[in-house]
């Protein structure tokens, strides 16, 4: 997968907003990787801020919808992982400023 396509995929994921925080999942640092195979299967490897997050289903559905806007993507698999664990250090500068975190 070329860098431009990966940028497009990450850009689509920036449209997925965490309803609790009001910031997209990329800037929060929830997305660990995105990959697209030759058959058009997009695999999004991501985590959640907490293991028992009640929004897991909502966020994974929104990821699938966001990826469906990319012509190269035929299907999307969301791989929720818990290692490495999410910490606020994964957040972008933008997210930290928006949430008042130093």
Automatic annotation (TrEMBL):
It comes from the Bacteria. This is DNA methyltransferase. Residues 6-79 form the MIP18 family-like domain. One of its GO terms (biological process) is methylation. SUPFAM superfamilies: Fe-S cluster assembly (FSCA) domain-like (SSF117916). GO terms for molecular function: methyltransferase activity. Keywords: Methyltransferase, Transferase.
């Amino acid at each position: 997968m070329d860098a431009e396509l990966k940028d497009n995929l990450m850009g689509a994921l920036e449209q997925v907003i965490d309803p609790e925080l009001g910031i997209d999942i990329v800037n929060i640092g929830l997305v660990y990787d995105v990959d697209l195979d030759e058959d058009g299967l997009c695999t999004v490897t991501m985590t959640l801020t907490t293991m028992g997050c009640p929004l897991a289903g909502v966020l994974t559905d929104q990821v699938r919808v966001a990826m469906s806007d990319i012509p190269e993507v035929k299907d999307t698999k969301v791989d929720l992982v818990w290692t490495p664990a999410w910490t606020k250090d994964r957040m972008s500068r933008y997210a930290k400023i928006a949430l008042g975190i130093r």
